Structure formats: C-alpha cells, structure tokens
Amino acid sequence: MLERFSDPRGGGETTALPTLVERAELSRTTLSVPGNATTTQSLAFTPTLLGDELRLSVYVYVGPAPESASPETADYHLYRWVDVGDSASSLPLPAPVPSGG
C-alpha cells in the first residue's frame, strides 16, 4: 500500500496523529515459508501516488489475508516513508518475512 496522510493539526510536533487521506494498493503476493525458516523477498512496484512523505506499507499475514488489508488486521506491518516524484519508476523494497513459528 502507498498511503498519504494529512499533516497533524497545527503542523510541527504535536500530540495529534495524522489522518489517512488516500490509500492505493500496489500489489499482493503469496509466499510460503517452512516452519523454523526465514526468507526475504524483493517487492517491485510502480507507485500510483505522487508526493512527499508517503508511507509505503507492507502488511504480512500468517495465513490468508483479508480483502481489505490494514495495520489493524495484519500480523506484521512493515513500512517506510518515501518521496515519490514525476520521474519515479519501479522502486525495489526488500521486505523481511516472518518465520513460521
């Protein structure tokens, strides 16, 4: 997912959390990992949103993923803040995958 958030009220450092404004699902993939094993998988995607300070989120599920993925439903939530400009092409993101234990 690529996600855009609003600035917290008043800007700067406050106790208010930003609000999710826009979300775009980029892709889904399935990976099986044997018990007591770990692996990594590179994920290539083409951004569909442009802007600064977008959150690139990877939601990891042990078992089937729901139709609507979110941090609340995921077993693991990996994310990275990215800036995406007009000249962006595919951006690789190595994502750790949890072991089956």
Can you tell me about this structure?
With 101 residues, the chain is mainly β. It has one domain (2-8, 17-97). The chain is built from no helices and six strands. The strands form two sheets. It has a four-stranded antiparallel β-sheet with strand order 2-1-4-5, with no helix packed on it. The protein has a two-stranded antiparallel ribbon with strand order 3-6. The protein is globular. InterPro entries: DUF1616 (IPR011674). It comes from Halolamina pelagica. Residues 20-83 form the DUF1616 domain. It holds the Pfam family DUF1616. This is DUF1616 domain-containing protein.
Summed up:
By secondary structure, the chain is mainly β. It is 0% helix and 42% strand.
Dominant shape: globular
Q: Helix and strand succession?
A: EEEEEE
Count of helix runs: 0
Please give the alpha-carbon distance between the first and last residues: 26 Å
Q: Give the biggest sheet.
A: 4 strands, antiparallel
How would you write the strand order of the largest sheet?
2-1-4-5
Q: Runs with pLDDT <50, length 5+?
A: none
Extended strand count: 6
Strand content: 35-45%
Counted up, domains total: 1
Structural class: mainly beta
Cα radius of gyration in angstroms? 15 Å
The whole-number mean of residue pLDDT values reads 79
Question: Approximately how much helix is present in the residues?
Answer: under 10%
